[in-house]
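It is worth pausing here to work through a concrete case rather than discussing structure prediction in the abstract. The textbook approach is simple: state the sequence, then state the predicted structure, then interpret. We follow exactly that order.
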Amino acid sequence: MMNKHQKIAQCFSPAAFIHDTEENYLAIEMLIREQEIGGLTFFSQSPFSRCQL
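Step two, the predicted structure:
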């Protein structure tokens, strides 16, 4: 059974980028382990690189 914190965390699905930095991968891992987020949304490129096209 999930507590209130876990139920709220399941609502979050932060962006993860395929070609991201190691620092960002570690930050995402921390969110999964410590905050028990619900999932990830993967993108192939950042919105900033898309704007440069």
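Step three, interpretation. Residues 22-35 form the longest helix (14 residues). The first strand starts at residue 15 and ends at 17.
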